[in-house]
Design brief:
- With about 240 residues, the chain is mostly helical.
- The protein contains nine helices and four strands.
- Helices cover about 55% and strands about 5% of the residues.
- It has a two-stranded antiparallel ribbon with strand order 1-2. The protein has a two-stranded antiparallel ribbon with strand order 3-4.
- The chain starts with 5 loop residues before the first helix and ends in a 13-residue tail after the last helix.
């Protein structure tokens, strides 16, 4: 992989953010209850601003504003009162997570990072050389880049499923002033929900054939490798409607 120039870095970073943000908005639109016209319109307006962002730092600022709207309305995607009472995050937080949803998401994103790392390595790409995420010792920056578009599609969806179906309950977590920890029951239940989501068969939104989300990750890694090598004109992140 040749060293990235500033223009290519910004173009790829923009696509990772755009796909993630669009998928967050779609998940909220599909699953949220109540009147969500205003936050959905705000999210779309912010997504439209991505093309004008002059730097990666500006992109990340817009991404943060979109994520704040998304997590502020997370509770609307929970299907019953008990779930809303116990699994409504005020924001995305980590190191350590302060509530059960953020504990599930942090654990799920760690699992997803492993999946994207393997997919990139299979295409001969260095998972530590990123575009949106800056390379740093021990940080798989490119794996985190590729993971962005799949956060809502796989991990957030698995967390919603685990909570809404009762696979995980409030009693499966220990919440203290030091943060929120998952018990083994929560960890095992979420892994089941996560694996079920990875193995779920969908019609690929671009190529129109049936495949699993696990296969879609590998396809996107292949497309990213082809874009970086100049075999195709651009990388396009996966989004759903």
């Amino acid at each position: 992989m040749t060293p990235p120039n500033a223009a290519r870095t910004l173009k790829l970073a923009r696509e990772f953010v755009r796909a993630k943000a669009q998928n967050q908005r779609t998940l909220l639109r599909r699953n949220g209850a109540g009147v969500l016209d205003a936050p959905l319109a705000q999210m779309q307006s912010l997504i439209a601003q991505l093309d004008a962002a002059p730097t990666v730092e500006a992109l990340m600022g817009i991404e943060g504003a979109i994520a704040a709207l998304y997590f502020a309305h997370w509770q609307t995607m929970l299907t019953d009162g008990a779930a809303r009472e116990n699994f409504s995050p005020a924001s995305r937080n980590r190191r350590p997570p302060r509530d059960p949803i953020n504990a599930l998401l942090s654990f799920g994103y760690a699992l997803l990072t492993k999946e994207t790392t393997i997919a990139l390595l299979s295409e001969g790409l260095d998972p530590y050389w990123g575009f949106l995420h800056r390379p740093r010792h021990g940080k798989p920056a490119l794996a985190l880049d590729l993971m962005e578009e799949f956060r809502p599609l796989i991990v957030d969806s698995a967390a919603l499923s685990a909570v809404n179906t009762g696979m995980v309950k409030a009693a499966d977590f220990v919440v203290s002033s030091a943060g929120c920890a998952m018990k083994d029951t929560a960890r095992k239940a979420f892994i089941r929900a996560y694996e079920m989501r990875l193995d779920q068969m969908i019609t690929h939104p671009v190529f129109a054939y049936r495949c699993s989300w696990r296969a879609v990750i590998r396809v996107q890694a292949k497309l990213l490798a082809r874009a970086l090598r100049g075999d195709i004109p651009a990388y396009v992140g996966i989004t759903t409607r």
